[in-house]
Each structure stands twice: as structure tokens, then as C-alpha cells.
Amino acid sequence: MREKTEAMLPAVAQVLDAPERLGVLQAAVPDMSVPDEDFDGLARLAASLFDAPIALVSLVDREWQWFKACIGTTETRSHVRESFCVHTIAAGDGGPFLVLDASRHPAFRHPRAVGSPPFVRFYAGAPIVLDGQAIGTVAVLDVEPRSEVSAKRQSELQRIAGVAASLFKLKDEARRRALKEAALSREEQRLAMALDAANVGSWLWDIRAGTVSGNGAMMRMFGLPPERTVGAKAIFSAIHPEDRIPTFSKLRQAMAANEEYDGMFRIGTNGRWLLGRGRVHDRDSKGAPLSFLGMTIDVSDQQASVNRTRLLLKELNHRVKNTLAMLQSLARQTLRQTSDPAEFMTAFAGRLQAISEAHGLLSDYEWGTIHLSELISKQLLPYVSDYSQQVELHKDEILLGPDQAVGLGLVLHELATNAVKYGALSVPTGKIVLTARRVVEDGESVLHLTWTEVGGPPIREPRRRGFGSILIERSLDKIIGSSVKVEYLPAGVTALIRLPL
Predict the structure, then answer these.
(1) Which of 22, 274, 285, 389 is the most exposed place for a label (fewest CB within 10 A)?
(2) Mean pLDDT for the chain?
């Protein structure tokens, strides 16, 4: 039996305020003010061991003693000034602290519980120690003094305090684990939402069970119902028949070599292209794969872009060959018609520019179709000072293909060049009137384009047909059914162009 005296009182505040002790207490039991029925059994066991009317399982912070479980009182806390348990903690030796008769003990004559109801006389407490710090006690109190307490009872009380410490430790670990699991669950939910929003399919193939668990994006990609788990057979059956065996072979190869699977395949029902990546998630003791984890991305747009690029490259190669042949012919014919090098360069450069303008427009539209009005403005702008005043256009909405655009571009260039030299664009008051109409002939669409020069000097038909005139008439020869007829009327040149669309 041990009793402490007033000599230890100065040590009490120092122990209670110790940062290490308070840190362990607050980290292990952040909700110390809330009673916990899980400790009721320990309080009852301590009361029964001492045949005492009051028993406590409590925690002690800097200012209050909090009752996590109690027998024989309705209080939930006590100020440390009125506490017996602070002395148990301050003792610091880990053993029980005893007060046989508080009315005779100099340190406990004045606390409220001694001088007024319930008139406590006897106290026995054992510290609850976590991580080397006393954070609370298991204690019993009685209104009757006692003469002694056997060593066995003291040892049993200390053992109950040890059980309380273990329970606090377990509950703290469970709380921390629950927080981690909740955080992990939130993270998984955020990841699942992000994958779904980004249309990224995630999946886990249980190889032995023959099932695949996937998110909503995964099921949508494969054209399957939104169930989270489906048979692996349903997944493989959704793959395009031509891609099914190669895909499965790649998966088997990746599993055997413990490498990452990476492959593209089509879905049979909609033809969408998917990119799949993944690897074995775990294996059994013999090394056989148990599950395969992966993700799938819809790459249909990228694949279409790749195919479109391939087609454009083929088209470009075709156009380059045709253009080179055309340039060779233009160079030869231009050189035949002009003996002056400077004149040759001017004429040839202009024709090159006409082809370049048409090619530039077609390239902007990926060698698809271009608007007639854009081609006209590209070819005529270099030859007029005020396009809106000198070019009058009456048109239907006409789209031209590559061959039509290049050929018609050369025709317009030659007509504009002649108009600048001899016709309406050689004087400030002259203008070009263009009328473009789509008509249906024998069930096919045909462009009728009329070029009319007005306001220029009087025109006479040239005695000799130059290469420009030939080029005007022959530039559309590649397009079956096309024709260009030029009339040299006194009021101005008129060109009648027929071009199947």
C-alpha cells in the first residue's frame, strides 16, 4: 500500500501540461468528452473487484477529467482541482495510487467530493498508459474508508487499466483505418467519376471466375447493358470477328510474358475503334494469372483522322504528279510563245500563281470541295484595285472538286490577264460581270458560268490564237463534258463555260 503526500502536488501541474502526454491523448482519443459504452464493462468489473459503489474509466487533459464510463455517478466530467486521478497520473511509476481515508489525508481534505456529498473517503486508481504516457485512469471510490488493499487487488486493478489502454489503442486504430478507408473511398469515387467523365473504361478480368467488372464507360464502349459485372465471353463476343483472335492472342502473350498488354480492336456492333491497355494484377502460388487489370479508350476519331490523313497523302501524291505534268506542259507551251526571258517569267509565274491559289484553297479544305466564290476572288483580286466595284457576281451556291477548281482557276487567270492587257480591266471604268448558275442536264448537275467584260475599250478578235487562248479552251479538258467558248464582241470579251459538277 502506498499513499502520496503534499510534497508531490507541485509535480501534478507539470505532468498534466506535458506536451508529450497531451499529444498522445489528443491523437488517440479526439472525442474524449463523449462517453463510450464499450468501457462500461471495465467500470463494472473494477467496482465489483473492490465492492465499491463508484467506478470510473476516465481521461485527463490539462483542465478536465472526462468520464468515458462510470458506475455510481451521473456526472460526465470533473475539474482537475477536484480530481483524485490526477495524482495517479502524476505519480509516474505506472502503479496503482491509493487513498485509504481522504478525510485524514492532507492533500484531499478540501476537494468538494470529500467535504460534501458523496463524502468520498477511499480511492484506488491505476493509470491508463499509451505510448509511454499516462492519459487517464481506471479508478474506484467509496464513501467508507479502508484500512488496507491487498496486493492482488491492486494488481487486478492495474490489469483492468491495461485492458482499457488496449481498448483505446484498438479503437484509435479502427478510427484511423476508417478515416483512411473513407478517404480511399472518396478518392475511388472521384477517380471513377473522372474516368467516366473522360470516357475512359476501366475493368478487372477475374480469369478463374470468367467475369469482367467494368465501369459505365467500359460497358457503353462494348455496347453492353450497364451491369458492373458481365461474363468474359460477352466482352470477347462484342469484339469485331476479324479482331477477336488477334486481341485474345495478345492478351495471352502479355500474361505469359508478364508484360503489358497494348492493342487496338473494333467493336462488332458499331465499328468503333478501342485502345486497350493492362497487365496481370495478381497470380497464384504457382504463377498462374488470377486477374487482369486494364483500361480502354475510344480512339475512333483518332483512327478516322489517321485514315483521312492517309487518303489525303494519297490524294496529294496524285495531285503533285498531275501538277508537275501540268507545269512541264505550261513551261514548254509558254516558252514556245515567248522568246523574251522576262516575258516568259512573267507569263509563267502568273500561271504558277493561279495553280498555287487553287491548291492553297483545296489544301485549306483538305482536298475536298471549295466554294466557287472563293476561287473567283482568289484569282481576280490581284488584277483589280477595287474588287467590289470591278467584279459583279451573280451566282448559285456552287461547290467545286479538286480537278474542277485547278482547271477553272487557270481559265479565270488567263481571262483576267487578257482583261488587264486588252480588255475591261485595262481602264478604271471597266468591270467583269460573272453569272454562275447550276442547271440539271440529263439528271446531272452542270455549272454554266458566263464571263462578261463591260466598260472597256472596243474589242477585236485577235488574228492569231496565242497560248493563253489555247489554255483557256483546254484547261478543263480533263473533265469530261466540259467546254469553254470565248467570243470577242465589240463591247467586250465574253466567255461561256460549261462544267459538269
Answers:
(1) 285
(2) 83
